[in-house]
Amino acid sequence: MACDTGSKPIEKNETVASSEENIPTKKENNMSSSLVLRKAPEFKMDAYNAKTGHYQEVSSEDYKGKWSVVCFYPADFTFVCPTEIAAMNAKYDEFQELGVEILAVSTDTKFSHKRFVETEPLLEGLKLTIGADTTGATSRAFGVMIEEEGIALRGRFLINPEGTVVAQEVQAPMVGRNVNEFLRQVRAWQHAEATGEVCPAGWVPGKRTLPVNTDVEKMTGRVGDYITIEEILS
Questions:
Q1: What percent of the chain has pLDDT over 70?
Q2: Active site residues
Q3: Angle between the 179-195 and 80-90 helix axes, to the nearest 10 degrees?
């Protein structure tokens, strides 16, 4: 399983013969496209709601008009995965204060999710809902499915209330993601969309933004007049 055995490259899809002239053609590779600035894929699947302790159905309709994050992970009962889920859960209340709904997803069944939550000490008190993408349809739609293994890459997608993906992070299974950095990005995106200003590298609330909505001509080629590298890195 990819969670355990390193970052072995996924083989490129082999060529196949066309139906009439026997000209080699490549199979479609649906792991190469970014979803940023595109409408988030629609989905529907079974899930385990750890907060209520019950199974339920979840769909993209449940998140319409809200900030939301769909967070794929490779598999239950692995090693990096519970650390990521626990980290997201530890910040659950902060996400809720920002009006952000969280859906974790793997290709395991809802029954596996329930047992995973009940037995893994890190997941005690879990409040998240975990989707069971057993057919892999949602993982494929988001472009994170590892077909050779039947599991998803670590893919995290931030979706705004209009249903547009504004940020995504996809990486191989061996290294977990940083929930604090993701929270920073959420706050920056919400500020940018609310004000029309843009957020420089590393921006957090209280730091200087760049007022392109009012001073764009003055700022062109002169961003350093508005912000210093010391401010950016502080």
A1: 86
A2: 81
A3: 50
d(CA 171, CA 183): 18
Q: How far apart are CA 8 and CA 192, in angstroms?
A: 38
SS3 assignment, position 55: strand
Confidence of residue 58 (pLDDT cuts 50, 70, 90): very high
Give the number of other Cβ atoms within 10 Å of residue 105's Cβ: 25
Name the pLDDT band for 24 (thresholds 50, 70, 90): very low
d(CA 165, CA 181): 17
Which residue's entry shows tokens 């590393």? 202
Sign of the four-CA dihedral 227, 229, 233, 234: negative
Distance of alpha carbon 1 from alpha carbon 4, whole angstroms: 6
Inter-CA distances, 18 with 14, 30, 144, Å: 13, 19, 27
DSSP 108-148: S-HHHHHHHHHH-GGGTT---EEEE-TTSHHHHHTT-EETT
- Confidence band for 230, pLDDT divided at 50, 70 and 90: very high
> How many of the other CB atoms lie within 10 Å of CB of 162?
11
Separation CA 212–CA 230 (nearest Å): 21
Confidence category of residue 11, pLDDT binned at 50, 70, 90: low
Two tokens at 127? 């409040």
Q: In Å, what is the CA distance from 178 to each residue of 43, 59, 140, 209?
A: 26, 26, 24, 23
pLDDT given for residue 121 in this prediction: 98
